[in-house]
Amino acid sequence: MSTPKPIEVTTHVARDFLQNSAYFSTMPKIIWEYVSNSLDNSREGIPAVVAVEITSNYARISDNGLGMSRDELGNFFRMHGENIQRKRGRKSRGRFGTGKSAAFGLANLLRIDTIKGGLRNVVELHRRDIELAQHGQPFSVRDIHLDEATDQEDGTLVEIREFNIARLDVDKVISFIERNLSRSHQRAHVTINGHECRFEEPPHIDTRKCIPPSDISEHIGEVTLIIKVSPVPLDEDTKGIDILSNGIWHGNTLAGIERKDRASYIFGEVDVPVLEDKNDEWTIPAFDNTRNNTLNLQNPVVAVLLGWLADELERVRLELVEQAREKRNSEVARQLAKEAQRIADVLNEDLAQQELELELTQKVSRRSGGRSVNEILDEKGELWPGGGDQPTLWQDTGQPHGSGKRGKVAGPGEVDRTGPTARRGDAPGAKKNVSDGQMKQRRGAFSIDYEYATSGSPRSRYESSFKKIWINLDHPQIANSFEASGRQVDARQFREICCEVAAVEYAIILQYEKLEKYEQHADEALDEVRLTINRITSRFVQLLYS
User: Fold this and answer.
1) Cβ-Cβ contacts under 8 Å for 243 (sequence gap 6 or more)
2) What is the pLDDT of residue 430?
3) Which of 411, 439, 466, 535 has its CA 20 to 30 A from that of 401?
């Protein structure tokens, strides 16, 4: 009896390749993968230069890096192959050899054009070739140019074609690349369609440096946690502590305080070299190969790190909560709250009128039932009651008229004939009838608040989720006005500038909301902004001088 053939662990190469490509499910992730490859393969002592070009037909990423020889190109296409730069002792982002599949997350064709030492190699990989490898066998990359002599400088051009999505959002790519570049801690010059990618750190009003105690540092090393406090809430991509290891970004966290008050004002970073240096030695790795930039909570060192971060961040958060409480309870804060409410009342009164006019415009033709506009509007342009779904300022009174089919024809007579007439809805007894019908009291949507957002921040901002306009008291124009007013909230000069800021912000917001709901040309929107500013500032005059 022959000895059974040993069972070996194998892989289905095609499925493995396409499965890894699924991790790259967005255009920003795909582009960043090849940009980061260029950064990892930059020349020693020379800033990396990467140019990205994105059109509806293709995306190209070119660099001034080391380029790849024929053998190195073969290693590039080896799944889970050893990272050449790491083998040479350089710190690099790539670890698991899966990034080459990124293009196939959204496209069908990858082309690599690379030059090294005067030799040029160009290859292509098609999705069809991958899918034909049905039995798990290796699949070939097509040679276009093989060790072709050239006098061009070293570098690599990656080209992605045949996208399976209709729209390539360049703005999102730019935003994603800029945020990741800020975390790379590497000298690099990256452009996307001619735009130079630069990330500006959010303004901050406080910086803390924290050193772990000895029982923590024996696990995570002698590291320094930098915590910064923003004057305003930060978005999801900006808030939190960046976790780096030897300058390589591995994630972002608020260590469990994400949903607590004032947590969104905190950002910063900590570099923990041990995560990279020891990761290959640990049974449970600190991070995986899915490019999701999330640390593995089951790793003991990661657990210690996050526990320490949670304590330090919670300490800062509680201080911010207490500071905010003290500001709210101050006399100036109470006066600002009253002034904010007065401004908001003017804006919401205008908003209610704008909504009524827009609804009238949208529904007038549907309500008319074939009648002319003049027939359904009174002499002041208001809707007459009856027959439609739009509430009016009028109500029917009296008994209904007869059909007129029987009896004598009514003459002028000396007394008015009884029957329906229209009277204003605010006449005696009208309130109940109106409240029972469709007319509902409109509630103002906007609120106003003040904040100290540093002098370099815009003088106002809009928080759409709460429909709140924030006025920046640190902006030079507003801060100088407050000082010139003797730091008195009720001083006319200070009130005037706050009203003007609110009017401009409201005028812009109103047009954005109209553009979302109704079709409108850009030039019409600009005219509406001017009209709104004029209308609101005129109403503010009554508020300020009455």
Assistant:
1) 249, 250, 251, 252, 253, 269, 270, 272, 275, 295, 305
2) 37
3) 439
Q: Answer yes or no: are the C-beta atoms of 387 and 367 closer than 8 Å.
A: yes
What is the token pair recorded at 316? 């800062």
Closest Cα to residue 104, out of 30, 192, 16?
A: 30
- Residue 254 in contact with residue 263, Cβ under 8 Å? yes
Closest CA to 247 of 278, 220, 219, 275: 275
State mean pLDDT over 4-29.
Answer: 84
Tens-place pLDDT, residues 430-459: 333 333 333 343 445 799 999 999 898 999
Q: What is the pLDDT of residue 353?
A: 87
The Cα 62–Cα 81 span in angstroms is: 23
**How many Cα atoms sit within 13 Å of 173 on the Cβ side?**
26
Which pLDDT does position 40 carry in this prediction? Answer: 87
CA distance 79 to 109: 17
Cβ contact 63:38 at 8 Å: yes
Tokens of 406: 């029987």
Compute the C-alpha angle 53/198/51, nearest 5°: 25
Q: What is the DSSP letter of 544?
A: H
Q: Which domains, from first to last, does the chain contain?
A: 13-196 (3.30.565.10), 211-327 (no CATH), 331-350+444-545 (3.30.2010)
**C-beta neighbour count of 35 within 10 angstroms:** 27
Pairing assessment for the beta strands 266-271 and 240-245 based on DSSP bridges: parallel
List pLDDT tens digits, range 40-84.
888 888 889 999 999 999 999 999 999 999 999 988 888 765 555
3-state secondary structure of 429: coil
Spacing of C-alpha 30 from chain mean position: 18
pLDDT at 370: 47
**Cα gap 502→448, rounded to integer Å:** 8
Angle between helices 476-484 and 492-517 in degrees, nearest 10: 150
Give the residue ranges of DSSP H helices in 185-299. 214-220, 274-277
> How many Å apart are CA 275 and CA 202, to the nearest integer?
27
Rounded Cα distance between 203 and 232, Å, is: 9
Structural element, H or E, at residue 71? helix 70-76
Backbone phi and psi for residue 184, each to the nearest 5 degrees, phi listed first: -80, -25
pLDDT digit string (tens) for 45-54?
888 999 999 9
Radius of gyration of the chain from its Cα atoms, rounded to whole angstroms: 33
**Are the C-beta atoms of residues 278 and 219 closer than 8 Å to each other?**
no
